């Protein structure tokens, strides 16, 4: 190999790394390389590393090329695998198109596509699917489905599982020519977590879609038939989630891992246009991991359906005795608290999954009653796990198992399990009998001899095993029953049963979702069965790959007899041969005391010389089998028990006596062994039965009407040696291989990129191991065994034309194949590499294909090379490229030297110019400094003059400022003195008005007092006159003539004083009061207007003050402007006289003083303005308070006035009433008294009018004297009222007399 070649080197962490070759030391078997940077792997690059050429991975790489691995010359020529250069950014879509195809090239191409969100890659006819651990919606949308559905060939589009399923569907139709095609199969394999289940979902969804798309144009299908077809498709698609609930579980590697194998036969019916339509499906299951019911590892879960049931609604749980129960309450769901606490699988909670499971059961025809019975059986399995045993010493001294009684917890679990599984045991039997029977079957076993039956107590371990065996067998039969119901709902009638070859009406497309090759730290019986299945599939896979290679070589016109491949027939013979592993295990299971140790001893003894079997000398129970994917070490502990997989007859008999319909279907009564309690299941005729295919129990499910039953094989009933798990699995695997062999098979290999289930992360070594287990590397080895390297004609001419440039120029025109041939004849002579010993005939099975092989052959589209030939051409090409590169480098170095000389000369000239320029600049700077000094002296003198003038101006400005301040202050003081005088005058005027008002009130009070005294005197006089009149009357009784005359005079006087006159006086007094009230309101209105004028005057005064303040502000602004102008002048002087420092400092001090003075004046003006504002505010508040008091006093006066007027009017009316009464009712009254009363009323009326007039003149306020006078007036009126009352009584007495 040439130095500089791009190679791959082994790395312990990343598997392989890209590197560049630096040196090879053949004698030391070492190579020195420099590692290239790889951001995806986190490799920085630049590291120089020594590579051991004898590394095991490099040896495995050499051996991977097949028959040329024995050629030491070729191996030495290419000690390291070469890189494929100039690949697309996302890698190639088909690995077979790589020029150098080896494990590192394959790994790096897969990683490129994986990181580019392209999980699918072809390897010939195989599709490799790398699980992205995220949903790539763009790859599964409706538009993508339609694109692949309508494509004619898979080569038109990018790799996709849709292309595989579309190719299989086209195979059903017979291609583009129409007619009947061939039945198809798609085999999906990979380890747990590789995405097999999701791939199968997508395949089934796409097949249903493509069947619908291709059938859109047909018009002969009735609407009812279309609806039935859609219902069937829905059942087929919904059966997958249903099987996931009962057959999938969470493991360490995968949250939704399938714990069984599944072969789904999608049934298609040819339509009138020979287009297959999906009409049904039939599911065949293999090897359910029922041991997971009772045991699972830490961090894992048992089957999903148990957790879904515990998350179901309480109404459903209450019907099966699970009310309030959780996952942590059951041993089978926790496994000694080592289970997983996950409640969400793939983003869906267990509760939501339970709802979907119930809907799916309803869809396939399981009604509500049957569902409740199914939930009860699952709950019974959970309660079986809650039954615990304890070993006690029996009567014979041996250990006997008893159910452990912990606060009746285990007894309660036993009763619930019996009630859920057995129900009523028959007529006359109670639930207690069922509990006792179940307890007896769990703790004792029956031993039958020819003459007697014995009941033998079981040990603690045997009782636990019997309990777990019952739970596992019960769940396995439930799973079998479910598969049968699904098939009964989706499968077509037996008349239309799909045959191995398509008929005129039906065809089949099978999807095999099978477990991949497994190799763990501890491998048991299940791993042996799984790997045995993979060995059979690998044999079929290798044969199909061989056929594809043969077809490729025939299409290219290349002799294909040179292809060789390895065969795994010896391993299969070791496992399933006549005296193979399965046969020995079955023989050991037939023995009553067969053990695992005896099995391993017989196996190693019979096959001690077998190359694929190796015995472990340290542990007699361990042995190793060399599978196609690598050696696997098995532990034989438990092989015999797991292979037997038997259930005690006592437990079977107990379940056969159950009254539960579903239990009766799962455990039918054996007619040859009728119990005393149960009934025999009626026979089922072949015409009435409908078969549901399964492989997980020793029986077959049959359904008739609404009844279900398990028909137990006759061999299991009559023979001692029942069919074992391995035998049954071998038989079913053989049937599967026969079915697959009758179809055209396509392969999808699923790869798990990392253990952490993280998106965007790929672990190289893990991926390489899976590629080896999946047989991809073997397929590549087969496809490249004869001619491992190939390159298209155009690429070959373009890449290696430089090795013969003259020939290439001559062959510019012409056929491309002819150009390639001429070029190869020029570069490589047509000689053989190696000749094998001839054999009789090529054997496809064993791969003994031997003949002479040339170094190269030309196909129709590409050139095929033997190992080492293309590497030699690459080495020659690299040598020529190195020589041409050396020539180019020579010319480039010459050009660079010439350019360097030109740059040096240009730099020298530039340096000289810089030196001359510096000298001239120094001279210029010196001259400029001298001129600047002279200019500075002259500017200093000019600046001194300007400073002096500025200083004088500044002093004048200060003087003017002081004078203006004094004038403004003087004006302000005068204004303030005037305001004080004005305020004093206003206060004096107000006080004088108040004094006058108080004086008038005092006078009125005195006048009223005098009137009251006069009235008092007159009343006294009247009383005296009355007394005298009475005396005279008494005396007149003695002189009647005189009395009559006096009465006549009194009547005439009373007639003279008519009542009409009193009414006129009252009307006049009322009108007078109204006029006085209007005058009083007018005076009040005038007073308010006067106060408002005063307020407006004060507002004008405030506006005057505000204008004066604005003037002061403008004056202050002029001072600030002057200060700013002075500042600008000082700045200009400072710029022009910077060298005069002392003068500048002095000017700065003066400027600071001026600024301080301006600030002081500004603060004084602001303070003065604030004082003026404060005084104005105080005056305004005072005026407002005075106006408020005046309004309050005025309101009080008005109220008192109204009350007094009403009282006076009432008194006046009372007096008028009294006078009228006296005139009407008194016949003889003194006329003088009546006249006095009338005068007194008039006087009171006039007093009221005068009082109203005086009250209306009061504006300034009400005094205490006025209030006192009003009270006294009230007392006087009360006295007058008393006097009138006495007078009225007197008159009343006289009237009566």
TrEMBL record:
Q: Where is this region: Disordered?
A: 673-698, 1023-1067
Nucleotide-binding as a keyword of this entry, yes or no, is yes
Classification via SMART domains: IQ, MYSc
Where is composition skewed (Basic and acidic residues) in this entry? 1023-1034
InterPro entries tied to this protein: IQ_motif_EF-hand-BS, Kinesin_motor_dom_sf, Myosin_head_motor_dom-like, P-loop_NTPase, Sigma_54_int_dom_ATP-bd_1
Residues in Myosin motor domain copies: 90-878
List the coiled-coil residues: 1095-1200
Q: Which GO BP terms sit in this record? A: actin filament organization
Keywords assigned: Actin-binding, ATP-binding, Coiled coil, Motor protein, Myosin, Nucleotide-binding
Report residues binding ATP.
190-197
Which Pfam families does this chain map to?
Myosin_head (PF00063)
SUPFAM superfamilies in alphabetical order? P-loop containing nucleoside triphosphate hydrolases
| Ranges annotated as biased composition (Polar residues) | 1036-1051
State a single Gene Ontology molecular function: actin filament binding
| GO CC annotation | cytoplasm; membrane; myosin complex
Keyword check for Oxidoreductase, yes or no: no
Outline the segment boundaries, as ranges, of region: Actin-binding.
Answer: 733-755
Concerning its family, UniProt says: Belongs to the TRAFAC class myosin-kinesin ATPase superfamily. Myosin family.
Query: Could you identify this protein by its name?
Result: Myosin motor domain-containing protein
> From which organism does this entry originate?
Nannochloropsis salina CCMP1776
Print the organism lineage: Eukaryota, Sar, Stramenopiles, Ochrophyta, Eustigmatophyceae
């Amino acid at each position: 190999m040439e130095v500089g070649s791009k190679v791959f080197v082994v790395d312990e962490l990343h598997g392989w790394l890209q590197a560049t070759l630096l040196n090879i030391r053949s004698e030391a078997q070492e190579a020195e390389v420099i590692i290239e940077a790889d951001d995806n792997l986190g490799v920085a690059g630049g590291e120089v590393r020594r590579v051991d050429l004898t590394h095991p991975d490099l040896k495995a790489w050499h051996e991977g090329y097949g028959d040329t691995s024995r050629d030491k010359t070729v191996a030495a020529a290419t000690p390291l695998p070469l890189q494929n250069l100039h690949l697309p950014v996302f890698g190639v879509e088909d690995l077979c198109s790589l020029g150098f195809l080896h494990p590192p090239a394959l790994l790096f191409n897969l990683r490129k596509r994986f990181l580019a969100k392209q999980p699918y890659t072809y390897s010939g006819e195989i599709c490799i699917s790398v699980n992205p651990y995220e949903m790539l919606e763009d790859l599964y949308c409706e538009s993508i489905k339609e694109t692949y559905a309508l494509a004619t060939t898979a080569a038109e589009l990018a790799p996709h599982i849709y292309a595989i399923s579309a190719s299989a569907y086209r195979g059903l139709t017979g291609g583009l020519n129409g007619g009947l095609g061939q039945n198809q199969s798609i085999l999906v394999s990979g380890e747990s977590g590789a995405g097999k289940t999701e791939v199968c979902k997508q395949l089934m969804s796409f097949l249903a879609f493509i069947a619908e798309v291709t059938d859109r144009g047909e018009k002969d299908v009735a609407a009812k038939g279309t609806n039935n077809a859609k219902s069937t498709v829905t059942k087929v698609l919904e059966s997958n989630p249903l099987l996931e609930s009962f057959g999938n579980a969470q493991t360490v590697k995968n949250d939704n891992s399938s714990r069984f194998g599944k072969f789904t036969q999608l049934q298609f019916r040819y339509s009138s246009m020979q287009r297959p339509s999906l009409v049904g499906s039939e599911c065949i299951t293999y090897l359910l991991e029922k041991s997971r019911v009772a045991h699972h590892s830490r961090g894992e879960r048992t089957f999903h359906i148990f957790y879904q049931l515990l998350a179901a609604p309480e109404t459903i749980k209450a019907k099966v005795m699970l009310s309030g129960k959780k996952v942590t309450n059951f041993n089978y769901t926790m496994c000694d608290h080592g289970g997983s606490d996950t409640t969400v699988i793939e983003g869906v909670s267990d509760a939501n999954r339970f709802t979907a499971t119930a809907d799916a059961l309803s869809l396939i025809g399981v009604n509500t009653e049957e569902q409740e019975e199914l939930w009860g059986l699952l709950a019974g399995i959970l309660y079986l796990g809650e039954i615990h045993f304890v070993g006690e010493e029996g009567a014979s001294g041996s250990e006997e198992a008893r159910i452990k009684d912990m606060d009746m917890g285990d007894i309660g679990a036993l009763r619930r399990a019996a009630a859920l599984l057995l129900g009523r045991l028959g007529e006359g039997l109670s639930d207690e009998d069922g509990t006792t029977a179940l307890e007896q079957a769990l703790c004792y076993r029956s031993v039958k001899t020819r003459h007697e039956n014995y009941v033998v107590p079981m040990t603690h371990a045997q009782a636990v095993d019997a309990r777990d065996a019952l739970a596992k067998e019960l769940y396995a039969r439930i799973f079998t029953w479910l598969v049968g119901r699904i098939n009964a709902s989706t499968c077509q009638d037996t008349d239309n049963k799909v045959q191995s070859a398509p008929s005129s009406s039906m065809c089949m497309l099978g999807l095999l979702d099978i477990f991949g090759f497994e190799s763990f730290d501890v491998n048991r019986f299940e791993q042996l069965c799984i790997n045995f299945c993979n060995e059979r599939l690998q044999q079929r896979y290798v044969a199909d790959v061989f056929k594809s290679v043969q077809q490729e070589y025939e299409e290219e016109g290349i002799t294909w007899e040179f292809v060789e491949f390895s065969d795994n027939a010896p391993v299969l013979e070791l496992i399933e041969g006549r005296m193979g592993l399965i046969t020995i295990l079955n023989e050991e299971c037939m023995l009553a005391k067969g053990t695992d140790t005896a099995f391993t001893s017989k196996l190693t003894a019979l096959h001690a010389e077998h190359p694929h079997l190796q015995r472990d000398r340290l542990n007699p129970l361990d042995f190793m089998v060399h599978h196609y994917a690598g050696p696997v070490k098995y532990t034989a502990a438990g092989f015999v028990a797991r292979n037997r997989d038997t259930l005690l007859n006592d437990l079977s008999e107990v379940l056969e006596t159950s009254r539960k319909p579903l239990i009766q279907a799962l455990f039918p009564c054996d007619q040859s062994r009728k119990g005393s309690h149960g009934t025999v299941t009626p026979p089922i005729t072949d015409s009435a039965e409908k078969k549901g295919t399964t492989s997980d129990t020793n029986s077959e499910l049959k359904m008739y009407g609404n009844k279900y039953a398990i028909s137990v094989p006759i061999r299991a009933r009559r023979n001692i040696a029942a069919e074992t798990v391995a035998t049954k699995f071998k038989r079913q695997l053989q049937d599967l291989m026969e079915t697959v062999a009758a179809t055209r098979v396509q392969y999808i290999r699923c790869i798990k990129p990392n253990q952490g289930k993280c998106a965007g992360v790929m672990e190289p070594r893990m991926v390489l191991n899976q590629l080896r287990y999946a047989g991809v590397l073997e397929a590549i080895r087969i496809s490249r065994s004869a001619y491992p390297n190939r390159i298209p004609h155009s690429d070959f001419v373009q890449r290696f034309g430089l090795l013969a440039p003259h020939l290439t120029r001559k062959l510019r025109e012409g056929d491309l194949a002819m150009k390639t041939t001429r070029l190869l004849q020029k570069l490589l002579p047509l000689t053989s590499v190696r000749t094998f010993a001839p054999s009789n005939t090529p054997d496809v099975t064993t791969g003994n294909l031997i003949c002479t092989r040339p170094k190269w052959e030309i196909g129709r589209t590409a050139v095929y090379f033997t190992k080492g030939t293309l590497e030699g051409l690459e080495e020659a090409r690299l040598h020529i490229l190195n020589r041409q590169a050396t020539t180019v480098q020579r010319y480039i170095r010459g050009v660079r030297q010439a350019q360097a000389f030109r740059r040096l000369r240009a730099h020298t000239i530039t340096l000289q110019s810089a030196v001359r320029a510096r000298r001239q600049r120094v001279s210029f700077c010196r001259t400029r400094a001298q001129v600047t000094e002279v200019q500075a002296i002259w500017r200093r003198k000019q600046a001194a003059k300007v400073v002096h003038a500025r200083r004088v101006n500044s002093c004048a400005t200060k003087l003017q400022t002081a004078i203006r301040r004094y004038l403004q202050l003087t004006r302000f003081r005068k204004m303030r003195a005037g305001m004080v005088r004005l305020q004093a005058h206003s206060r004096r005027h107000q006080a004088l008005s108040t004094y006058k008002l108080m004086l008038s009130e005092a006078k009125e009070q005195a006048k009223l007092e005098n009137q009251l005294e006069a009235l008092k005197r007159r009343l006294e006089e009247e009383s005296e006159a009355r007394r005298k009149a009475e005396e005279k009357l008494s005396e007149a009784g003695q002189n009647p003539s005189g009395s009559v005359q006096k009465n006549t005079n009194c009547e005439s006087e009373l007639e003279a004083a008519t009542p009409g006159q009193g009414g006129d006086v009252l009307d006049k007094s009322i009108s007078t009061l109204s006029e006085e009230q209007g005058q009083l309101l007018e005076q009040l209105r005038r007073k308010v207007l006067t106060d408002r004028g005063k307020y407006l005057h004060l507002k004008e005064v405030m506006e005057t003050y505000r204008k004066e303040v604005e003037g002061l502000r403008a004056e202050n602004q002029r001072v600030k402007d002057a200060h700013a102008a002075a500042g600008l002048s000082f700045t200009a002087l400072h710029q022009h006289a910077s060298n005069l420092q002392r003068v500048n400092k002095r000017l700065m001090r003066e400027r600071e003083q001026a600024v301080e003075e301006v600030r002081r004046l500004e603060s004084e003006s602001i303070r003065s303005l604030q004082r003026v504002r404060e005084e104005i505010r105080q005056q305004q508040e005072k005026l407002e308070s005075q106006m408020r008091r005046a309004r309050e006093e005025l309101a009080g006066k008005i109220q008192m006035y109204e009350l007094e007027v009403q009282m006076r009017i009432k008194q006046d009316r009372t007096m008028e009433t009294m006078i009228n009464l006296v005139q009407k009712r008194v016949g003889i009254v003194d006329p003088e008294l009546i006249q006095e009363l009338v005068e007194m009323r008039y006087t009171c009326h006039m007093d009221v009018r005068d009082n109203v007039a005086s009250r209306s003149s009061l504006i300034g306020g009400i005094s205490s004297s006025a209030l006192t006078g009003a009270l006294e007036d009230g007392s006087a009126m009360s006295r007058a009222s008393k006097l009138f009352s006495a007078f009225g009584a007197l008159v009343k007495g006289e009237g009566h007399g």
